[in-house]
Task: inverse folding
């Protein structure tokens, strides 16, 4: 039954027009420890450019932890240590010579709860580019704000109220504001940690369409609890269980023809 | 009327228990309020008369001789009236003449400050006047020769051994100077410490040890900070004693833990998602803290700092130890001159035997309470005003 729902979602999916397989992120034998506990067990996977890669799995399987490895958010957890390799465009992101702040500028992140700064819509977007010296105050900055808001499909809704606090927008608009804020610093890769789980179905649909639009320019990795969402938007899907990468395949193949028993059990709702 | 459908066993008993508890807690509130009202009522009743002061109308022939020896007027005046006039007023006569040189050679009608006994008698308090003098005063009061005026002296002079000449001004100036020193030292250091501990410091045994110690410092009896101030600032660094500088330093030591603890609490209320948003955008820790976390925590930090300063303003014990309880007749003009502070002045007056100091004590308490209440009001206003709108 559940499988039918998923394949239904698959049929509605727009076909990716950027299908060349360029490896954007290379992960090799990545293990992560919280103190003694091994949270990620020797993960090896390639993430492809201009594709949406979905990470799915039951709660506590390590999918968010893996996502947070890609922009080194786990560095903030004191007891956390990492073994293995992650390369973005051939550059080791855990290289001690690299500034972690630069990594996070290149690899942006959108969070589960919309978290705009309690400032105006304009400032929300302009702040980080100004801090990164990407634009100068004034016309240049105004243009970037407009471009970013257009990129997140929010411009038409807010163009007359840029000075309104970002927190006054609806939940879906706030999340799009957060996406606009992320693309304003011109990252290569966008990580999304359950970006629609706090939103209603309509806003979810808007964000999903936006993601399909965004993948033309960015590589997107999304963590989701919602298998239909993974089926609807992603090109590649990875299933994780207890810190291990069980199966990673093209989304269509993954849902229609799972190789592993665990995957099948999970997507048919017999587990998790 | 018993309803079987909505029946719960023992419902009456449970309701009665709830009612008893309600009465118990409300009686606690009522007791507190009663104490507070009694306290305020006594203070205000005692203190209000201190804001007026009796003056006596006297005709004085001004001569050059008075400039050298103002007490010579006692010989020219009626014997009783001479006794009613305050010594401090007579003493100030030469400077009045200097200001008005055209008085010399004329008989001028002046409004002279009466001494404490006259003032207290007319206000119905204890006095040392004879039956005769009392009758005379009653007559003069009816004739309008003696009248009450607003007590400017209380707000313009410092302490004095002559009760009618004692004022609160130098104590107020001393408090302002001391608070200035305390504020300039404790607030920046306290806020920076809190920001460091909350935002930047690694969470390890050492920082935990520091935090526990800061929390405990907030609960240390204030007199110990006085001893610390005496040992470090006066004995070791040789800072001059009795000055607003050393008092301010000592109070800053005392306020620091309170400011740090409250500022840390204010930083804790800033949602973690704001910091995460900044990290996700590749902002540095400093940019996130300065532009996103600090503005959100500012109202709480301000409130905590003002409350800590208000507490320091009402503190006496540590200041006694660093010598700020001294008799200071003149308002201090710099933070390195001897000064006293409001609560210390209240403490000094409260030990004086003369009746006039009793009302001055109460009036001073009213002023101090007024300042403290307005500080708290400012704290509430600032918190409301800078509250971020979500």
Result:
């Amino acid at each position: 039954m559940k499988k039918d729902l998923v394949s239904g979602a698959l049929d509605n999916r727009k076909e990716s027009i950027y299908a060349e397989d360029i490896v954007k992120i290379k992960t090799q034998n990545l293990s992560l420890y919280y103190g003694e506990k091994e949270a990620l067990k020797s993960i090896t996977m390639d993430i492809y450019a201009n594709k949406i890669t979905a990470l799915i799995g039951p709660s506590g399987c390590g999918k968010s932890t893996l996502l947070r490895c890609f922009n080194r958010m786990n560095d903030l957890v004191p007891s956390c240590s990492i073994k293995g390799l992650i390369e973005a465009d051939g550059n080791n992101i855990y290289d001690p010579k690299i500034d972690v702040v630069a990594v996070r500028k290149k690899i942006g992140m959108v969070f589960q709860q919309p978290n705009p700064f309690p400032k105006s819509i304009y400032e929300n977007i302009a702040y980080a580019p100004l801090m990164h010296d990407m634009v100068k105050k004034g016309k240049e900055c105004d243009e970037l704000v407009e471009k970013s808001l257009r990129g997140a499909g929010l411009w038409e809704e807010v163009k007359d109220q840029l000075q309104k606090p970002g927190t006054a927008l609806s939940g879906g608009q706030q999340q799009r504001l957060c996406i606009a804020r992320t693309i304003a610093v011109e990252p290569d890769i966008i990580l999304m940690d359950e970006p629609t789980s706090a939103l209603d179905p309509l806003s979810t649909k808007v964000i999903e369409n936006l993601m399909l639009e965004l993948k033309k320019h960015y590589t997107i990795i999304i963590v989701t609890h919602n298998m239909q969402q993974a089926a609807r938007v992603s090109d590649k899907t990875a299933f994780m269980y207890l810190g291990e990468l069980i199966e990673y395949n093209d989304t269509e193949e993954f849902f229609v023809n799972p190789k592993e028993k665990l995957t099948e059990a999970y997507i048919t709702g017999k587990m998790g | 009327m018993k309803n079987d459908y909505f029946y719960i066993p023992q419902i009456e008993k449970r309701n009665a228990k709830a009612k008893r508890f309600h009465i118990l807690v409300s009686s606690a509130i009522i007791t507190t309020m009663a104490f507070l009202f009694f306290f305020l009522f006594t203070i205000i009743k005692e203190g209000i008369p201190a804001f007026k002061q009796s003056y006596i109308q006297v005709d004085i022939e001004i001569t050059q001789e008075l400039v050298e020896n103002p007490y010579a007027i006692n010989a020219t005046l009626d014997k009783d009236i001479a006794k009613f006039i305050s010594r401090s007023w007579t003493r100030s006569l030469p400077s009045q003449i200097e200001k008005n040189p055209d008085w010399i050679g004329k008989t001028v009608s002046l409004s002279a400050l009466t001494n404490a006994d006259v003032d207290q008698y007319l206000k119905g308090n204890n006095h040392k006047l004879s039956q005769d003098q009392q009758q005379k005063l009653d007559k003069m009061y009816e004739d309008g020769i003696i009248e009450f005026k607003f007590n400017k002296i209380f707000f313009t002079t410092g302490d004095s051994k002559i009760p009618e000449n004692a004022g609160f001004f130098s104590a107020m100036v001393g408090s302002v100077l001391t608070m200035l020193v305390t504020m300039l030292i404790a607030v920046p250091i306290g806020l920076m410490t809190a920001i460091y501990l909350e935002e930047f410091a690694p969470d390890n045994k050492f920082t935990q040890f520091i935090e526990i110690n800061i929390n405990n410092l907030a609960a240390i009896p204030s007199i110990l900070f006085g001893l610390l101030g005496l040992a470090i600032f006066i004995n070791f660094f040789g800072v001059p004693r009795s000055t607003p500088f050393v008092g301010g330093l000592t109070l800053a030591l005392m306020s620091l833990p309170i400011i740090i603890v409250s500022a840390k609490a204010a930083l804790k209320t800033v949602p973690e998602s704001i910091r995460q948003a900044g990290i996700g955008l590749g902002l540095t820790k400093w940019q996130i803290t300065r532009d996103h976390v600090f503005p959100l925590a500012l109202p709480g930090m301000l409130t905590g700092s003002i409350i800590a300063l208000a507490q320091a303003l009402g503190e006496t014990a540590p200041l006694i130890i660093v010598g700020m309880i001294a008799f200071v007749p003149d308002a201090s003009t710099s933070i390195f001159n001897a000064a006293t502070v409001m609560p210390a002045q209240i403490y000094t007056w409260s030990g004086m035997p003369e009746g006039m100091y009793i009302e001055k004590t109460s009036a001073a308490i009213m002023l101090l309470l007024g300042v403290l209440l307005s500080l708290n009001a400012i704290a509430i206003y600032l918190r409301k005003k800078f509250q971020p709108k979500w």
